[in-house]
Task: structure prediction
Amino acid sequence: MSKPNPIKTTLLSAACAVALMALTPAQSAEPPIKVGVLHSLSGTMAISETTLKDTVLMLVEEQNKKGGLLGRPLEAVVVDPASDWPLFAEKARELLTQDKVDVVFGCWTSVSRKSVLPVFEELNGLLFYPVQYEGEESSKNVFYTGAAPNQQAIPAVDYLKDELGIERWVLAGTDYVYPRTTNRILEAYLKQNGVADEDIMIDYTPFGHSDWQSIVARIKRFGSEGKKTAVVSTINGDANVPFYKELANQGVTADDIPVVAFSVGEEELSGIDTKPLVGHLAAWNYFMSVDDPNNAEFIETWHGFIKNDKRVTNDPMEAHKIGFDLWVQAVEKAGTTDTDAVQAAIIGLETQNLTGGTARMLPNHHITKPVLIGEIQEDGQFAVVWQTDEEVPGDAWSDYLEGSKDLIADWTPPIMCGNFNTVTQTCLGSEAE
Amino acid sequence: MVLGRLLRDDRGGQAMLAVLLLVAVLVPILNLVVPEGNPWHVSTYTVTLLGKYLTYALLAVAVDLVWGYLGILSLGHAAFFGLGGYAMGMYLMRQIGDRGVYGHPVLPDFMVFLNWTELPWFWQGFDMFWFAVLMAILVPGVLAFVFGYLAFRSRVTGVYLSIMTQALTYALMLAFFRNEMGFGGNNGLTDFKDILGFDLTNDTTRIGLFLASALTLALGYLACRFIVTSRLGRVAVAIRDAEARTRFIGYRVDHVKLAIFTFSAMLAGIAGALYVPQVGIINPGEFSPLNSIELVIWVAIGGRATLYGAVIGAVLVNYGKTYFTGAFPEAWLFALGALFVLVTLFLPKGIAGLFSQAVTWWRVRRPRERTARVTP
Amino acid sequence: MPTRIPLHRGIWISSLLVLLCLFAVTRVSAEGSETVSFEAALIDLSDPSFAVKQAAVDVIAASGDPRAAALLQALAAGQLYVRDADRALVLVSPSAGDYRLRDALDGSELGEASRREVKKIAINNRMRTQLRTAIAALTLASPDPAVRLRAAQQMLGDPNPLVIQAIRDQLEEEENRQVRDYLTLSLALADLQDPATEIRLRGIDRLSGSLYPAARNGLNRLLSAETDPEVRDAAERARTHIERMRSLNEAAETLFFGLSLGSVLVLAAIGLAITFGVMGVINMAHGELIMIGAYTTYLVQQAMPHWIDYSLFVAIPAAFIVAGLMGILIERTVIRFLYGRPLETLLATFGISLILQQLVRTTISAQNVAVQNPSWMSGSLQINPALALTYSRLYILIFALLVFFALLVILKRTALGLQVRAVAQNRAMARSMGVRSGRVDALTFGLGAGVAGVAGVALSQLTNVGPNMGQAYIIDSFMVVVFGGVGNLWGTLVAGLTLGVANKLMEPWAGAVLAKILVLVFIILFIQKRPRGLFPQRGRAADG
Result:
């Protein structure tokens, strides 16, 4: 092998550099703005989160096609927290201190968000969290672009109650904080609406529960006692497939006992044979089937990016899209990617929802969202059967829980607090100075 | 004196402790004294990371003690680690006091959230540091004692014992996932503020925790050396190599096993207690059986029955994980999987074995050179 | 005389429909429209508003038009579309890429159309219920017993006197036993609301022993308002009787659930009983071999999309071969260097399991894939109104037993089986007797892996098929093998079924999570009592 010739190498690299400069716009001289992507690419959550990683990569690519941001290109930094919650905290720290990213899009489960929260607060980073969650949180450093319980669960129950005349309720969920909280809120809400104790059945199962025979049989019996019954499902991800299969096999159809799910979207349905599920419901803020020009464009871009026409879009993807748009606007408005400036700039900004209407960033770091109820169709899509007249503002602290009904979050002066007690007029806990 | 006795014939251990000492001295200086931006500066991120590796290393030493010297392959050591972690986590939760999001003076946030009105009995006393530390050692110890007492007395051995320890940690994981248990369910314990009055986000606190981990690792290592070089340790090795024969000679095999197993569990508990304040969260995922298997693999990669090999394995594999999850997020599992396969196939004695092979090779070779020089 | 009765019945049905019609008219006028004709309603069907569509369905149902039943059935089945060009209602059946259209009213062929030219008439749950009731009323006299059965089921418990009369008339004609059951039940339920005491008593008598939930609900309703002590007494007795029979059935159901869960455990564990139990390899990649079997099923279904009903028969041998070859590959490249070091096989196979998982993630997808159930795997076998066994579970239970006995025969009755057992018991001795231990090892491991693959086919019918599915079964599988006794196939069978039944017995009062924890604690304690499992292997081979 010949030794590398230093002169040749220098010449070659110079030529390369010139060629690159000629090819790329002048902006590349500026250092790129770094966008951190903190989604699990392996482990149990990879099923849901890899799609979101691809979504952010797509959004970054699109933004770069438009000439970047503030005249600088965007650069995505992807890490894999491997569905390991302490590793989420470590990776968040790595993104913020080693890679020095300007913003992070990431997390799916509540526990991963709770794990990274102290890191973002300590290092004053920015996190956009795209998944529907249990509420009861508002951090200065986190923007919640998914639904709070009042933007998903309560409207869905209203629909069942008013439109389908449901009188008995099964609240079935996986045993973790999101279903627990949602079900507690719903239980309180149903009781306020005059539903008796014996007409509510609550059941929790472990993660990845795969043997639903007994529970479905119980639901069937519970629903056979003469009153119209529905299941409100907060069953998480993987456990849904065997649950729906068992429902179908035991002959529970949507017109007998409809199931309304809060965690089953297009992505989850793509792993299920949907024929027996037709008519069961889901409540989301976005459905791929919604006929809207913005949505059509989004889907087309996604198919082009992922190079697969069969891939579906879902609610958390829209949430990332909205979060990304709002962040871009805020950076443009602030003229910098500095965390505090972006935080101040972003509140009140608006962007188009993919289903029509606008999403506005509220002072409590949640956004306004329309609530849609869809019925599962044979092709694995949802047909919208009901939707709210206007966007519902996200409520960080539930009005139906004892501990939090007096709390509000407001990140604008003079309150500047994530858990402000409106009765005592004080900012509680860690934010107190 | 004692130190000399413990480390005689343990060149690997000597080297390991020397490196540990060097790191323990250098890292704080490079982090606190050398200004940021200087290429020699060690970031706080690295400090916490190193601190985490050291607690893992201590855990690996505990596993190596029972696996390498007693022949018990525990697939449940993460359970003891997790329990120690929870004890410390409970202390840190209580330290939050009224700074939680709901501002409740005593109850942690998740209890307010579940509408609990008073602190469950098993949370009492955890506002005191000494009590929490005691529990971090005692709870894993008692669990290991009870489990070991039952298992060793009825002579559950080999693969059966391994699978039982796995069942133990699996059952604990499922139990801690339950919200009714009162340990925060799936989310576990998080959002810690300070430890012994020191702010956990402070660089000096981090250095302090790092030094504490280094010191505990050194002490834990020496304690294990003390055991393996003692009579007890020699009986343990005898049990490992020929259990029935040792029993027939007249040794109380189950007592020896129980003592060492319980000690190892306590060590794992301490490691867990040091781990939690540095990573900032403890949740039932720590009990996952896969974690236990992984830590056995650290020991295997480092080199079984060497103790210092466990330290090398734990640090190396975890560094690899940190690096690869960042550098090759899509492909790192291939690398990790291949590493496990290749090490078991080609390095049955682990890295430590490679090290001693190299030493032997060097020793064999040098005299020959000397001879060569003498005879012209 | 077959002509007279339908006429007679027709009168009642049309009066029922008139009633429905009145209802519809009031509803429609509330909407501010006066259109009630059949033709106008047809146009309303394609309206985007569900309220308008519902009103239109009522009108169509009440129109007495002979085409109504077929039209509404098509709507309920989601086959009714509207053609954009002329807003004509069409029936659609998919043909290669496009749709084949037929006129919805007269059934004449209208040729092909692309997906963009027609639009499906969407219905929601409320409309489904409404359609079901309307179709029931229109089809109770249908010549097809299955249709009549559905209609009778739908009408069950409807207190409307017109409905009751229609049922009474149909009952005179009805020959199908199941339909008669439903009709009689409906009449008995109607009896309960009769003012005359003896009729109510007759109704109670007829309901006693009926397992239909409606019977119990009817009695409950009666008891909540009844004042006559004699009737109350009879109703109480009937209800107790029903409750007792129902709880017997519930117990049978729980047993079935338990056996079914057990059969899944046995299937998952039985491959491991060979690789781990017979060969002593702690095969952590066992779960991934199951996963390979499940993915094979998926790929087979992708290859034969129009033959889903037969796909499993192709998938079972395919999965056995694919997973078996993978097993042989693993054995030849890794495990054969590790015999006699069982704990090190754990480490190496754990590495292999990580690689296999990531391999699936990168080559197929990180998402779950959809494996379809053949039609014969869907639905359930109705033993009686309170007890139904789902076909998928039933077949898998049978399948698990088949696999078990096939393995037993292979190990006990074939030359390979003899060699396998010989090598497992004493490798050196077997070799000196001329057994080619290397080949036997590869085949045994391949057999265990192949069986795991076959288990994957069965599991793909029940649960997720995704990169993580293997991990969900690995721990349970080890528990089953250890609990049953390593090296004993019968032990694995008994252990799997016992654990399944125990789990299901505890689930109702302990909840799913606690039941699982209790089972684990039970295994831990049991192993202390019997350190070698349920069926310990005798002799020296068990040491080690």
